[in-house]
Amino acid sequence: MNVDDILSFPFIDAPPQESLLRSLELLYALGALDDDGKLNEVGKRMARFPLEPTAARCIIAAETEKCTIETLAILSMLSTDTVFQFTRETNGHKNVSRGKLIRKVRVTELKLIN
Protein backbone atom coordinates (compact mmCIF):
# COMPACT_ATOMS: atom_id res chain seq x y z
CA MET A 1 0.00 0.00 0.00
CA ASN A 2 3.05 2.25 0.33
CA VAL A 3 1.86 4.07 3.44
CA ASP A 4 4.86 6.03 4.64
CA ASP A 5 3.32 7.78 7.65
CA ILE A 6 0.82 5.54 9.43
CA LEU A 7 0.21 8.12 12.15
CA SER A 8 -1.25 10.60 9.66
CA PHE A 9 -3.07 8.03 7.51
CA PRO A 10 -6.74 9.07 6.92
CA PHE A 11 -8.46 6.08 8.54
CA ILE A 12 -12.26 5.90 8.24
CA ASP A 13 -12.42 4.95 11.90
CA ALA A 14 -9.00 5.78 13.31
CA PRO A 15 -7.65 3.80 16.26
CA PRO A 16 -6.34 5.74 19.26
CA GLN A 17 -2.94 7.33 18.63
CA GLU A 18 -1.51 5.54 21.66
CA SER A 19 -2.49 2.15 20.21
CA LEU A 20 -0.79 2.96 16.93
CA LEU A 21 2.37 4.01 18.74
CA ARG A 22 2.42 0.84 20.85
CA SER A 23 1.95 -1.25 17.71
CA LEU A 24 4.83 0.50 15.98
CA GLU A 25 7.01 0.00 19.05
CA LEU A 26 6.20 -3.71 19.07
CA LEU A 27 6.99 -4.07 15.37
CA TYR A 28 10.28 -2.22 15.88
CA ALA A 29 11.18 -4.42 18.86
CA LEU A 30 10.44 -7.53 16.77
CA GLY A 31 12.78 -6.27 14.06
CA ALA A 32 10.05 -5.70 11.47
CA LEU A 33 10.76 -1.97 11.05
CA ASP A 34 14.01 -0.21 10.24
CA ASP A 35 15.28 2.90 12.01
CA ASP A 36 13.16 5.10 9.73
CA GLY A 37 9.98 3.21 10.70
CA LYS A 38 9.63 1.50 7.32
CA LEU A 39 8.90 -2.18 6.85
CA ASN A 40 12.12 -4.13 6.28
CA GLU A 41 12.62 -7.64 4.84
CA VAL A 42 11.80 -9.35 8.14
CA GLY A 43 8.61 -7.28 8.39
CA LYS A 44 7.63 -8.22 4.85
CA ARG A 45 8.11 -11.90 5.67
CA MET A 46 6.10 -11.49 8.89
CA ALA A 47 3.25 -9.84 6.94
CA ARG A 48 2.84 -12.98 4.85
CA PHE A 49 1.79 -15.00 7.90
CA PRO A 50 -1.87 -14.74 8.96
CA LEU A 51 -0.76 -14.58 12.59
CA GLU A 52 -0.06 -12.14 15.37
CA PRO A 53 3.29 -10.38 14.83
CA THR A 54 4.97 -12.16 17.74
CA ALA A 55 3.95 -15.58 16.43
CA ALA A 56 5.12 -14.73 12.93
CA ARG A 57 8.46 -13.56 14.30
CA CYS A 58 8.81 -16.78 16.31
CA ILE A 59 8.41 -18.84 13.14
CA ILE A 60 10.98 -16.76 11.27
CA ALA A 61 13.43 -17.07 14.17
CA ALA A 62 12.74 -20.80 14.43
CA GLU A 63 13.85 -21.25 10.86
CA THR A 64 17.29 -19.85 11.68
CA GLU A 65 17.52 -21.86 14.89
CA LYS A 66 16.41 -25.04 13.07
CA CYS A 67 13.51 -25.75 15.42
CA THR A 68 10.56 -24.92 13.16
CA ILE A 69 8.55 -28.06 13.86
CA GLU A 70 8.81 -27.63 17.62
CA THR A 71 7.90 -23.94 17.38
CA LEU A 72 4.88 -24.67 15.21
CA ALA A 73 3.73 -27.30 17.70
CA ILE A 74 4.01 -24.84 20.59
CA LEU A 75 2.26 -22.04 18.69
CA SER A 76 -0.52 -24.45 17.69
CA MET A 77 -1.08 -25.46 21.30
CA LEU A 78 -1.12 -21.81 22.41
CA SER A 79 -3.63 -20.80 19.75
CA THR A 80 -6.35 -23.27 20.67
CA ASP A 81 -8.70 -23.77 23.57
CA THR A 82 -7.89 -26.33 26.20
CA VAL A 83 -7.53 -29.89 24.96
CA PHE A 84 -8.88 -31.29 28.21
CA GLN A 85 -12.56 -32.06 28.43
CA PHE A 86 -14.58 -32.15 31.60
CA THR A 87 -18.00 -33.72 31.95
CA ARG A 88 -20.79 -32.06 33.88
CA GLU A 89 -22.35 -33.87 36.78
CA THR A 90 -26.11 -33.76 37.35
CA ASN A 91 -25.72 -30.83 39.76
CA GLY A 92 -23.90 -28.76 37.07
CA HIS A 93 -20.42 -29.00 38.63
CA LYS A 94 -17.48 -30.13 36.57
CA ASN A 95 -16.27 -33.66 37.13
CA VAL A 96 -12.84 -33.21 38.64
CA SER A 97 -12.40 -36.72 39.94
CA ARG A 98 -9.58 -37.37 37.47
CA GLY A 99 -7.63 -34.43 38.92
CA LYS A 100 -8.23 -35.73 42.45
CA LEU A 101 -7.02 -39.18 41.41
CA ILE A 102 -3.84 -37.78 39.87
CA ARG A 103 -3.11 -35.83 43.07
CA LYS A 104 -3.61 -38.98 45.17
CA VAL A 105 -1.24 -40.94 42.93
CA ARG A 106 1.42 -38.23 43.22
CA VAL A 107 1.10 -38.12 47.00
CA THR A 108 1.42 -41.90 47.12
CA GLU A 109 4.51 -41.74 44.88
CA LEU A 110 6.07 -39.14 47.17
CA LYS A 111 5.42 -41.32 50.21
CA LEU A 112 7.07 -44.28 48.46
CA ILE A 113 10.12 -42.17 47.58
CA ASN A 114 10.59 -40.91 51.15
Layout of helices and strands:
Blueprint: H1 17-29, H2 41-47, H3 53-65, H4 68-78, H5 97-113
Helix pairs in contact: 2-3, 3-4
Which key features would you list for this structure?
single chain, 114 residues, Four Helix Bundle (Hemerythrin (Met), subunit A), mainly alpha, 2 domains, flat
Brief overview:
The protein is mainly alpha-helical and 114 residues long. The protein has 2 domains: 1-83, Four Helix Bundle (Hemerythrin (Met), subunit A) (Up-down Bundle), CATH 1.20.120.1080; 84-114.
Walk me through what this model shows.
By secondary structure, this protein is mainly alpha-helical. The protein has two domains: 1-83, Four Helix Bundle (Hemerythrin (Met), subunit A) (Up-down Bundle); 84-114. It is built from five helices and no strands. Helix 2 crosses helix 3 (53-65) and helix 3 packs antiparallel against helix 4 (68-78). The radius of gyration is 23 Å and the shape is flat. The model has no long low-confidence stretch (mean pLDDT 82).
Poorly predicted parts: none
Order of helices and strands: HHHHH
Total number of β-strand segments? 0
Q: How far apart lie the N and C ends?
A: 66 Å
CATH topology title of the largest domain: Four Helix Bundle (Hemerythrin (Met), subunit A)
